[in-house]
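> tool_call: predict_assembly(chains=two)
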Amino acid sequence: QSVLTQPASVSGSPGQSITISCTGTSSDIGGQKHVSWYQQHPGKAPRLMIYDVSNRPSGASNRFSGSKSGNTASLTISGLQAEDEAHYYCCSYTTTNTHVVFGGGTQLTVL
Amino acid sequence: QVQLQESGPGLVKPSQTLSLTCTVSGGSISSGGYYWSWIRQHPGKGLEWIGYIYHTGNTYSNPSLKSRLNLSVDTSKNQFSLKLSSVTAADTAVYYCAREDSSSWSLDSWGQGTLVTVSS
């Protein structure tokens, strides 16, 4: 049972936009700016796509954006492409003793 | 561009100790501002943060694993290591090492991961 709650799956057609939500508590997402998002293709290591809620690391596509409202963070992917099909995980720093917590992951299918 | 690579046995017997090493290249493990972390992923499941170590040797571990976990660093070899004792089948997972940026607590570079199976 993951601490952060994500939808198990989302889907969209090429060119469309999708949003993945990630819900936590005031101990993590609601009280922190250190929220990150990771993309994971099958058999590969996760890749950082967003850090500190809405910042993109060097090399990450500007089609990826992040936001936060209350205890829920969101990842939006615009102009969907086939290569975006992957699992996406949210992560937040937490004031509990586990340092960081992850969501259970969301499978994005590009139709 | 920093790169990380895990190494260690892919099969460990129950009750024994799982040992992995992460070799860092393209950057110094002693550079400030980064912690060196371990994360695991059970088959078909999500990610679990295991713990981190700083180049000074300071560590922080997931409370659920702390009693069985030992993290160490060898700055001369640019490596850090994980030892998890008294393993069971529940410890079967892909183990990743990663660099954690202390300014954002994000994992910005990852190793490719190594599958460790606990079985007799």
